[in-house]
Amino acid sequence: MAQPIQHIFIPVLAGILVNEAGEIFLARRKAHLKHGGKWEFPGGKLNPHEQPAECLARELQEEFGVPARVYHPVEISSYSTTDFTIVLIAYWAQFVDTPRQSTDHDTFRWVAVQDLLRYDLTPADVYIARKLQSVSIPSFSN
Question: Among 58, 82, 100, 137, fewest CB within 10 Å belongs to which?
Answer without folding.
Answer: 82
